[in-house]
Design a protein that fits this description.
Blueprint lengths: L8 H4 L1 E8 L10 E9 L5 E9 L2 E11 L8 E8 L6 E12 L5 E5 L6 E5 L6 H13 L8 E2 L19 H7 L3
Antiparallel strand pairs: 1-2, 1-8, 1-9, 2-3, 3-4, 4-5, 5-6, 6-7, 7-8
Length: about 180
Amino acid sequence: MEVVKNLNVERYMGRWYEIASFPSRFQPKDGVDTRATYSLNPDGTIHVLNETWSGGKRGYIEGTAYKAEPNSDEAKLKVKFYVPPFLPIIPVTGDYWVLHIDPDYQYALIGQPSRNYLWILCRQPRLDDDTYNQLVEKAKEVGYDVSKLHKTPHSESPPEGDNAPTDSKGIWWLKSIFGR
């Protein structure tokens, strides 16, 4: 599977809204306003903050991304999170491959080699239908079962920062393990 080459990591930093994804056990099924925020760490790795709102509460997990092959020009990253988020002791590492990004770095298609996970991301909480359909078609062309894509709901005014009560006990994470 081909990935983006020569990704401009600095341009990629910032907030990305999840427009659609394959459901996963790591996210609540009723999650809304899901987004990721990336920032460069001094050591060249990337700080990852994934957030979603479920039942009016903000759930989040923080991690670190880094190039899978440091000398490669391919946009193949590894992302490491420690779980559970309320007592981070177990490292979980996954692939994060940038399959497509537009020239203006406004929308992206993210996947991984097993094709079990797929994300359509955008700098805005909404993406026009034509662009969305083009990204779905690109995913289909490289072997993804796009019938599993689920659009992520976003409110008219997505919450900023800590505007919602936080799920400090990690209940969303525990529920997600049991498929709820």
